[in-house]
User: Fold GLPGLI family protein from Flavobacterium cutihirudinis.
Amino acid sequence: MLFYFWSDSKTKSNMKKILFAFLAFCLITQSFGQKNPKAIKVTYQRSYNGKLVENPDPLLLYASKDLSLTTTDKILQQKAELPYEQTFIDFNTKTISQWAQLKNKSILTNDTEALGKQKFEFSNETKKILNYVCKKATTSVNSNKIEIWYTNDLGLKGGPAALGQDLGLVLETIRNGNSVVTASKIEILKTVPYVLKIPAVQTVDQLTYKDLLWKSRFINIPVFNKEEIHFISDAKSNDSILRFASGTVIVRKVKFPEIKKGSAIFADVTQQSNGDAYDRTGSVFMIPMDKKTSFLDGLKNGANTLPVYENGNGKKYQGVAATNDYTPLLELMRFFTPFGVKHFNYLQLKNKVWQDSVFYRQDISLLQPKLSNQEIYIGMFIGNYDAGGHKASLNISIHEGEDNNTKADYILPLFNTLNVMEMAGQEYGTMFDNEKGIELSFEVPEGYKNFKLSYTTTGHGGWENGDEFLQKKNTIYIDGKEVFGFTPWRTDCGSYRLSNPASGNFGNGLSSSDLSRSNWCPGTTTNPNLIDLGNLSPGKHTIRVSIPMGKPEGTSSSAWNVSGFLIGER
Assistant:
């Protein structure tokens, strides 16, 4: 502490002048330091529709005159979940560098053009944010209106995203008027922090970067890769893939990791014709092995070794219904091949560009209890009698941490009348030619509630007067009481014309692939119906499916492929 003593008025006056000059010098120095700091740290907060969004991992910006870094607190502390990204901008070279930490490596990609291509409309509007005067610029990104509020008061550039960083220091962005990112704190740094340095890691092109980053966000399990599913008498298995029913069924044992509840699970199939010109029924399924007899036994030893279902119409249906000693196939996806995609693309039509393949994708998250931490047999079937047949790939992806509101703790396969061993003598699903249809008993265990039935149905055969082209009501009964009834029908089949180069054309200008059908189209999946059954009491129950199936006409007959499994919650 300094003490000053004045002996006379002249000395006192001089000291006042000195003190005033000192204070003025301090203010000028402070102002200069604020105007041109070596580096800054900015913390941002988010709000939506006027409400602050709580975020335990705040967005951070570090900036010097040469470089900026957009990151988060958890990333800097190495506590963020993998994968994560950071964005660097080199203002000298106008380069945006994206740096990603994947589960097993780091990658970097550089873009020397994007920053210079940003276009804005400028306004005379100004406002103060954290006591800094900000100017307004507006742009559009993917049909989203973006307002940028930036300041030049600090002489540095940066922002919460790459957009607008070359304008100045972005303190606020507003997307579509309701999603806002605003600076909540600005810290002046005495030195350039160590984090303002682009890491020396593997550099890849932008498409490779995006692909590697995307794939690192989920678990992908490749099951089949362009496997032939065709009809040949000497179809041979190998150590990896088992082939049955003259090569029309392929099976592989797959190990699944532990899957968290709430994760999203998808089955993806890519299919091409390898010689077969027709639309065919396809199915992806798992083979339950929890009972004395399994469908795998039938594949190995013949369809007639499977438990038989009879309903009094004189036919024997192998392996279609659950019994005390047998669980039928659990269907993951029902799909239908189009007419000859890829192989028959040489059949040209004016202004038609045929697809190279068909991609089918279905959400199978409900099956998490049957997949998590299990080693199971996964199979695929495409019915055909062609030596070239089809080529198909199957991948199952697991997207952990997604809250998809699926609640399934208990899965019980009940029936599946799709004869995947069609080419090995398994009977078609014609049991619906009488009112009983398919009927069976099942047991509900203690401790479950809110039961649902996943029910997939498609009608087939009979040509123009068959059930494939006629609307037929499906009715489901539980304990003798109707719980669901609907008429499965698809009227959008013409939407998939470009996947059907070999589809037959009629005199009236229509193509076969255009025709409406019983819940399927050539080149599509068929979605299951999720039927609410309520709280079934523990113990035995019965289920029956009834469909007024049409009668045979000459050598042509109808059939219905229906599959169903019970879902329960704890």
Observations:
- The chain has two domains: 39-208, 218-569.
